[in-house]
Amino acid sequence: MQENEILQKIAQTLQQSNFKTNKRPIDYQSVDALSKILDLNKQGYQDWEQLFVWIRQYLEYSPNTKHENFANRMWSGANLPSIAGEIITALSNTSACTFESAPVATLMEVYMLRQMLTLVGFKNGEGQMTTGSSNANMIAMMVARNQVLEPVKKEGLFGQKPLFAFVNAEAHYSLDKAVNILGIGSNNLIKIPTFENGSIDTTALEKSIQTTQNKGGIVFFVCATLGTTVRGAYDNITDLLNLKKRYNFWLHGDGAWGGAALMSKKLKAKFLPNVDQLDSFTMDFHKMLGSNLMCNFLLLNHQNLLSFTCCNGDNSYIFRNLDYDLGTTSLQCGRRVDSLKWFLDWKFYTQYGFAKRVENYYALAKFAEDFINKSTALEMVAKRFSFNVCFRFKTAHNTNAFNQRLRDQLHKEQATLLSLGYIGKQLVFRLLISNIKLDKFKLTQLFERLITTGTQLKKIEPTP
Ligand SMILES: Cc1ncc(COP(=O)(O)O)c(C=O)c1O
């Protein structure tokens, strides 16, 4: 088959698939059943006909993330301009590590980073696109580590005083990975309890910092979670800045999910006051704002630290333009082009469009909370603080197990794929609205389906 024929066939296949017709959010199959259907073990050369069988199966059995009832993660579907960008990126297949291999992608990335620096308010900053907020959190911590202990880059952590990082107890698990990778050690990642609203308890944080210093540890990094993964709580940047003045640590903002509030003046003022005074900030454009996965940026409120931290200084075989070869500030060598989709989305929707989107999600989250509070079948497990709605189906006994079964039942019925999380010991549905097709009507339908299925399930439940 020629390239043109293949591209046409891809388009036809998409047209006929559930991806296009949008009939259901999932075609549920168990692991065993799906393994049998896919028959991945076919040996030897496979022709295009067989490759297209697998392509059709891929489309058939992957969740249709743009369906309104896919409410499983912090993202759903993707913006059309970014889909166009991804297709072009795949077809043109180059690496964004040097200007000469990706001239347009480089200029787009530099342009977009400047736009974001302005939005956040980092006047003399720098930034890079990374592979996601997990990595961005780790890179921010690495920059902070190399600032506080400059010899570490050459000498490692051998013989150094122990370093300590501090996070909200409900911070993302990527911070645990970061301390492991960077040699800080998971015992030295101190998880601070939260206030009732889920934000870091700054009084407990200060006490913990003092105890650590009194024992001779170096307090080098505090991560403000700006939209926690389960509850959507925002750590108080202003209070953390006051602590930073006293204890002189690097203050990073993990806005992977909640950083999107930046787009709206109103929500930025509410959730991200003084964000311009952080040392670093990361956010995923592929979450609430709908760009194709992965689309992340990390910004520093400093200059020339990324190249110091990330680059080994070897430009012998690859780097020819140190001002524009973005690989010199990156931990990667080959870099996927993520800037085209990002740029196209930005130009199409503009900050105004993204602000409206985020404000709409915020209003829908409030609508969902009100619906749950009025419902006799459902209950909120934690008060809604921002975008996240954590609730469950009420039962007299075994509520966790019941909600797990309810979720599985809806999955098997191919009705919806809902997200679960824990608040303390309570299993909750974690509704994260990030689908532009969702409105009050469709949200109501989703809740009604949940209530109907839950009510039926309750009737056939064995009494304990
Ligand atoms: C608060 C927070 N930080 C970091 C991450 C990790 O982001 P990524 O999936 O881009 O690595 C997440 C993901 O859900 C998150 O919720």
What is the mean predicted local confidence, pLDDT?
94
First-to-last CA distance: 62 Å
Which stretches of 5+ consecutive residues score pLDDT under 50?
Answer: none
Q: Please state how the strands of the largest beta sheet are arranged side by side.
A: 2-8-7-6-5-3-4
Fraction of residues in H or I helices: 40-55%
How many H/I helices?
16
The main β sheet shows up as:
7 strands, mixed
How many strand units?
Answer: 13
What does this structure look like?
There is one protein chain. By secondary structure, the protein is α/β, with parallel strands linked by helices. Among the domains are: 3-64, no CATH class; 85-345, 3-Layer(aba) Sandwich (Aspartate Aminotransferase, domain 2). 45% of the residues lie in helices and 13% in strands. The chain has 16 helices and 13 strands. The chain has helices at 3-16, 18-21, 31-38, 48-61, 80-92, 103-120, 133-148, 152-155, 174-181, 202-214, 237-247, 265-271, 305-310, 339-374, 399-412, 440-460, and strands at 70-71, 126-130, 163-168, 189-192, 218-225, 250-254, 280-284, 296-300, 378-380, 388-393, 417-418, 420-423, 426-432. The protein has a 7-stranded mixed sheet, sandwiched between helices. A 4-stranded antiparallel sheet has the order 9-10-13-12. The protein has a two-stranded parallel sheet with strand order 1-11. Strand 6, helix 12 and strand 7 form a beta-alpha-beta unit. Helix 5 packs antiparallel against helix 14, helix 6 packs across helix 14 and helix 7 (133-148) crosses helix 9 (174-181). The radius of gyration is 24 Å and the shape is globular. The mean pLDDT is 94.
